[in-house]
Amino acid sequence: MIVSIHAVKFNHLRHHKHCLSEEDYEGKSAKMTWYGAILYGPIHFFLIHKVTFQLGNAQYKKNLLLELMSICIFVGIVFYLQLNFLIYHISVMLIGEFLMAFFAVWTVHHHTHEHPQFARTQRSHWKNKITFNMFYHLEHHLFPAVPTIKLPELAKRIDQAFPKMEKKKTF
């Protein structure tokens, strides 16, 4: 990631507290079209930092500035020394960050506004394999303290306990 991880943390905790409301800046792209979410990506990249600086406490602001300065120094050194393999890596990370509003928000939250806590999920074994189990979002919202590595097991337990529960698919 080439963003302040404290900005991600701050906005993600707000996302869980204010899921898909006006206070949820992370979830903003869920209300857009799929291509709107992709085009919004670069704005999302900057907005999470702005929101953290405006609404975060002193510790968040300090960590945000420290992380952004570290990123800028690292990127500056890489470009100054023309380390092409790292320039490529930075470019790929930046493109990935610009797609975050689509992949991390829109895909799991579009058309879930009536019940935002019931985010989309993925149950296909092969789809979960190729996406590294990153689309167990319903499970993540129902039990946010469960580590990502345990979400497939949690999904099985939810399916056993609530076999008739409607689950919207991610894709």
Automatic annotation (TrEMBL):
Q: Which InterPro entries match?
A: FA_desaturase_dom
Q: Where is the signal peptide?
A: none
- Which biological process, per GO, is one annotated for this protein? lipid metabolic process
Indicate the transmembrane segments per the record: 32-52, 64-81, 87-108
Superkingdom, natural source = Bacteria
Q: Per the database record, which ranges form the Fatty acid desaturase domain?
A: 3-165
Q: Which UniProt keywords apply?
A: Membrane, Transmembrane, Transmembrane helix
**Record's protein name:** Fatty acid desaturase
Q: Which organism is it from?
A: uncultured Aureispira sp
